[in-house]
Amino acid sequence: MKRPLIIGLTGSIGMGKSTVAAMFEAAGVPVFDADAEVRGMQGPEGELIDAIEAAFPGSTGPDGVKREALGAQVFADKAALARLEALIHPAVGQKRAQFLAENADRPMVVFDIPLLFEKGGHEAVDTVVVVSAPAEDQRRRVLARPGMTEQKFEHILSLQVPDADKRARADHVIDTGRTLEETGAEVAALIDLLARPAG
Predict the structure, then answer these.
(1) Which of 153, 154, 109 minimizes the C-alpha distance to 129?
(2) What is the value of pTM for the model shown?
(3) Residues of the chain with confidence (pLDDT) below 70
């Protein structure tokens, strides 16, 4: 059965992955944003709210998941985190399958997955694109975010596969340490390359 080429898009925090995903989308390549799907399912009226409340009482309200309350119940508790992931991952998998079915006739699609290598998702895509920038650019971008601290940044980095390892394992690397125009040209060239028949 014919299906689109599946591009796995990933990159560490502050590397510009969302910007690159938007460039793919602007070029007409459908993008499945795993994080956005999770936010939707955990938001007001989200389909995971009842299950999360049952597993973690007091962690939801009229506006959906109370991030602080849920975080307090799963942070530093591996078993609790595993229970939460067991609710979320199958639901995201269903959404992804639905997205693929809706875009079955497209030449290519993008799966935007922050923890692609960390969770083994790279095995389910045809080609891996890593978004990367110099470490000083990354640090500047992340520390400019509201509520971000050096400690939080270091903790997030400790949970992610190092950028150098991601680049080494990538099929393609998009450099966002340059101007938006240059990065956009790189994305356009990659789409052009991937659209060519193999061989």
Answers:
(1) 109
(2) 0.86
(3) 1, 198-199
